[in-house]
């Protein structure tokens, strides 16, 4: 479980959120929503230890690894790594033959579960937007995370590709019990894939059922 207790974050005099309280259960698939600048990324950075909270607490099992899937950026056409080697960047280097075999088996499994087996040799720079996004997801899975953070990972993808990616994440959530934090401005995907959302608004965070989400609430 991830629990925020009276969590406050300020940048200088600017209050991003103040005394917020919420819980995210293990294995939950929850949306994180709110207008631009509401504090969603700041929360993620605090969870990942990249930013310090100002006060209050985050209670979570720190043994639980977090996989972070950013929104794909344009990659140079001549970027040298193919998808498989891009994933392998997240492996620890080892000369131990048994560990190398295990690592290869892990990569095979992830390529299979993300439907990237046929694309493993595709240079990342030449992959489509959806393929790049799947490669980012596959790379995050190499760390065997318990928590997956999708940070606007569906933005700038075509609708059918968004659905493919989200179906894949839903499967990981159901089959492997991954906790998923889905940061998004997309109210339709929020409603389709999650039951509730943490709404960041005016320095507060509120848990709302997806039925309560209005079209323009966080766009
Ligand atoms: N390192 C920083 N120093 C100062 N202010 C910051 C810093 N990081 C973020 N902020 C400010 O904190 C507020 C929250 O930013 P944050 O990036 O968390 O918003 P967000 O909800 O993720 O927005 P978006 O939907 O646009 O990605 C913004 O006003 C932002 O300018």
What report would you give on this structure?
With 219 residues, the chain is α/β, with parallel strands linked by helices. It folds into 2 domains: 139 residues, P-loop containing nucleotide triphosphate hydrolases (Rossmann fold, 3-Layer(aba) Sandwich), CATH 3.40.50; 71 residues, no CATH class. Helix content is 32%, strand content 27%. The protein contains 6 helices and 9 strands. It has a 6-stranded mixed sheet, with helices on both faces. β1 and β2 form a beta hairpin. The protein is globular and about 50 Å long. The two termini are 29 Å apart. The model has no long low-confidence stretch (mean pLDDT 93). Adenosine-5'-triphosphate (ATP) binds next to α1. Pfam families: ABC_tran (PF00005). One of its GO terms (molecular function) is ATP hydrolysis activity.
End-to-end C-alpha gap: 29 Å
Q: Specify the structural class.
A: alpha/beta
Mean pLDDT: 93
- Count of DSSP-assigned helices: 6
Number of DSSP E strands: 9
- Looking across the biggest beta sheet, what order are the strands in? 5-6-7-3-8-9
Point out poorly predicted stretches: none
Beta-strand portion reads: 25-35%
Q: In the residues, how many domains can be counted?
A: 2
* Basic shape: globular
CATH architecture of the largest domain: 3-Layer(aba) Sandwich
CATH class of the largest domain: Alpha Beta
CATH topology of the largest domain, what is it called?
Rossmann fold
Q: How large, in whole angstroms, is the Cα Rg?
A: 18 Å
What's the CATH H-level homologous superfamily of the largest domain? P-loop containing nucleotide triphosphate hydrolases
Order of helices and strands: EEEHEEHHHEHEHEE
The level of helicity is 25-40%
Ions and ligands: adenosine-5'-triphosphate
The largest pleated sheet is described as: 6 strands, mixed
